[in-house]
Design a protein that fits this description.
Elements: H1 6-17, E1 23-25, E2 31-33, H2 36-46, H3 56-69, E3 75-79, E4 85-91, E5 98-103, E6 109-114, E7 120-127, E8 130-138, E9 145-153, E10 156-165, E11 179-183, H4 200-212, E12 217-219, H5 262-269, H6 271-282, H7 288-308, H8 322-335, H9 344-347, H10 358-385, E13 389-393, H11 402-406, E14 415-419, E15 429-430, H12 440-443, H13 447-457, E16 460-465, E17 473-478, E18 487-490, H14 493-507, E19 510-513, H15 523-529, E20 534-537, H16 538-541, E21 557-560, H17 569-574, H18 576-583, H19 589-612, H20 622-634, E22 640-644, H21 645-648, H22 675-680, H23 682-694
């Protein structure tokens, strides 16, 4: 730092105090240093009093002072089985007794006095001429839960949330059996009764078929609310909210109102509706707008019938904020715009009668009630008969969605989340959604995170957390800059794990952390410590070494041939993914040739190993290799094996190609096999029989 100006030195000292890293090593090990412009932009977005570089020295002084003047942190963790304490900062001359009070989650209260002289000193610091001491305040034994600590002295009070959490997620590692399941995006699943895309009845049908073959779970992509009419964003990883569901997946014919709603019967029985559904079903790609319009027509009729019978306003259990969400969606419908384009009053969260059509408000309340009922039924059945559903919790939300409107302070404007350059994306990635602020969710007691997790976990046996590295750090890209100019921002990871572990144990839901991509060294040990399963994707683990062609899968992981963001097995085997990346500019000619050579070595080494183990004969085709490869994974120590059903019929087209947009049919391609076709597919059943033989079905939590 000796070659920097005083202002630049102050800026680089200020950055870590806000959690910003001034540099990092990319995936190839090359050190990258954040520019002053990028640091100023992200620090300003974080709330630092910076208009430009010249303000850095004063901002540094203010930040240091603020950190030491804060008596209690917003959140403290009490891990089960370990002595609990919180850190407090006091001026060195502080000599007043403190009154300590804990308000427990269950309504109980504990109170006790203490004096600074009785507390253990951890360290001291001098800031702007004042000396401060960091003390460690012991806490009594606490039940699991979210508790509130209050310290008072001299007429002043300071508060902190204390999360008393189990160290690890459900279940304990020694109780986690080796099990397996199948994967299919619900929008891609189709059946003879579909209306242009799969629904929760189809999901139950898939569960019934898979469990009959020995599977213990069915996995799918996020089922969260989406903008499918206006604005249009079909990606399940940019939902309107992480709190509410996508009514495209509801089955109106299974609602309690359906039998007593002649309007709904008239719509479904009309020739126009039947023709519309027939056209939607025959399309190779999901027509989200058309499918949603058709379903909305029926759901709206059911909502009117429910309202006339007095049942329409009933909100499902555990759906706080539903009326607020419904008014938000109705206002989007009324205005034809997302909230950043609304009037100031509306942008600030104040919606009034006249801003929206009350019929659409009732529609969304009803649709969410129906989704909650049907998802609960599917989840309860999967838990009774197996290990439960495998749901997916996305990292981000739509920038114009409900969550960024209602919880606006929790999100950071002017930047977007993404990833730095790596071997797969040489230019880096800009994901286009705003990141969570690292401090403000803490100050709000993690209510948004806890409720979002809770609403998923109550219906799931497994919950996959997208990009779990974001618990530790997330790559921010300032507006107007390129992805390679981004900055890593650190997050209070242990607090995130505490919330996840507490909710996981309460809901009896296992947690899987998606740890693919650029992974800091400390993420793996953290996942292990907190009983969060990692992911072991076979395509990434092939070495090309004839002596050891694939890295072994550890016990605490979910293993699969691929993911929804990767090439299917057939495309991987034929190198189609390399062709796509080269065609779309993600790989240059030289990089493409190197990838092709690497792939050739990987395939040769894998085939040789499968032959040595007697899994593969001479002249075997791609389907034989795929089946043998799955059997090899089934015999591994991994806790969970997921089989992508599309691999069973050698599908070549991916569901999504990261880094691309409308030039490819991302998130829209329907499965080639229908649900009925699967039940008749002898080859698919034979492959899964080999998997089941190598990995017997595990009992669900209610069967043991």
């Amino acid at each position: 730092m000796f070659d920097l100006s005083p202002e630049e030195r102050a800026l680089r000292l200020l950055a870590p105090l806000y959690g910003a890293q001034t540099g990092y090593r990319d995936a190839t090990g090359i050190p990258r240093r954040a520019s002053s412009e990028a640091l100023v932009a992200v620090l300003r977005a974080l709330g630092a009093p910076l208009r430009g570089l010249a303000d850095a020295p004063e901002a540094l002084r203010a930040r240091r002072q603020t950190r030491w003047q804060r008596v209690l942190p917003p959140v403290s963790i009490a891990w089960a089985g370990s002595p609990a304490s919180v850190e407090l900062h006091l001026p060195v001359q502080a000599d007043q007794p403190l009154e300590c009070r804990l308000n427990l989650e269950d309504g109980g209260q504990q109170a006790w006095p203490c004096h600074p002289a009785e507390l253990r000193r951890r360290r001291t610091a001098e800031v702007e001429g004042a000396r401060y001491v960091a003390f460690r305040l012991p806490l009594p034994d606490l039940p699991r839960g979210y508790h509130h600590l209050t310290l008072s002295a001299g007429g002043r009070e300071w508060r902190s949330l204390v999360i008393s959490a189990p160290l690890g997620a459900y279940p304990d590692p020694e109780e986690n059996p080796r099990t397996w399941g199948v994967f299919m995006p619900l929008y891609a699943l189709r059946s003879e009764r579909s209306w242009g895309s799969g629904d929760l009845s189809d999901l139950e049908g898939l569960w019934e078929w898979a469990s009959s073959l020995g599977a213990s779970t069915v996995a799918t992509l996020p089922l969260l609310a989406a903008f499918l009419d206006g604005p249009f964003e079909p990606s399940p990883y940019q939902p309107v909210s992480r709190l509410f569901w996508n009514e495209l997946y509801a089955d109106p014919r299974r609602s309690a109102e359906f039998q007593r709603c002649p309007q709904a019967h008239a719509i479904i029985g009309s020739k126009g509706f039947e023709e519309r559904v027939r056209v939607l079903d025959e399309l190779g790609l999901v027509d989200y707008a058309g499918a949603m319009e058709a379903k909305q027509q029926v759901l709206a009729a059911l909502a009117r019938c429910a309202s006339e019978s007095g049942d329409g306003a009933a909100a499902p259990e555990g759906s706080q904020g539903l009326a607020d969400y419904a008014r938000f969606r109705a206002t989007v419908k009324q205005t034809g715009r997302t909230w950043p384009q609304w009037r100031q009053r509306q942008r600030d969260g104040d919606l009034r009668p006249g801003d929206y059509d009350e019929a659409w408000e009732r529609y969304h309340i009803y649709a969410q009630r129906l989704m909650e009922e049907q998802l609960r039924a599917a989840g309860e059945r999967a838990r009774r008969e197996g290990k439960g559903l495998h749901l997916d919790f996305p990292l981000g939300v739509h920038p114009g969605g409900y969550d960024t409107w209602r919880f606006r302070r929790l999100f950071v404007e002017g930047v977007s989340a993404g990833a730095p350059p790596d071997a797969f994306f040489s230019r880096g990635q800009d994901w286009g959604f705003p990141p969570l602020h690292p401090e403000r969710p803490r100050e709000a007691g993690y209510e948004y995170l806890a409720e979002s997790l809770r609403r998923h976990m109550r219906h799931a046996g497994f919950l996959r957390i997208d990009h779990v590295m974001a618990f530790h750090r997330l790559f921010w890209i300032p507006g107007g800059m390129e992805p390679h100019e981004g900055v890593y921002i650190r997050y209070p990871a242990e607090e995130y794990y505490a919330v996840v572990a507490l909710e996981s144990q309460r809901q009896r839901c296992s947690v899987i952390g998606e740890n693919l991509g650029t992974i800091p060294w400390y993420v793996g040990p953290a996942l292990t410590r907190h009983h969060v399963m990692g992911m072991h994707v076979a395509q990434f683990e092939l070495t090309g070494d004839p002596g050891s062609p694939m890295r072994a899968a550890p016990r605490d992981c979910s293993v699969a041939l691929n993911t929804h963001d990767m090439a299917t097995f057939a495309a991987f085997w034929q190198g189609r993914d390399i062709e796509v990346r080269a065609t779309t500019g993600l790989l240059g000619p030289r990089e493409a040739r190197l990838e092709e050579e690497k792939r050739r070595r990987q395939k040769e080494a894998l085939v040789a190993q499968l032959r040595r183990r007697g899994r593969l004969g001479r002249g075997a085709g791609a389907r034989d290799v795929m089946a043998a490869f799955l059997e090899l994974l089934a015999e591994s120590d991994a806790g969970l094996l997921l089989v992508n059903l599309e691999d069973l019929w050698l599908e070549e087209q991916p569901q999504n190609v990261p880094g691309t947009g409308t030039e490819l049919p991302n998130w829209r391609r329907k499965a080639r096999e229908s649900l009925e076709g699967l039940s008749q597919d002898a080859e698919a059943r034979a492959v899964l029989a080999r998997v089941a033989a190598a990995r017997p079905a595990a009992k669900g939590p209610d069967q043991g």
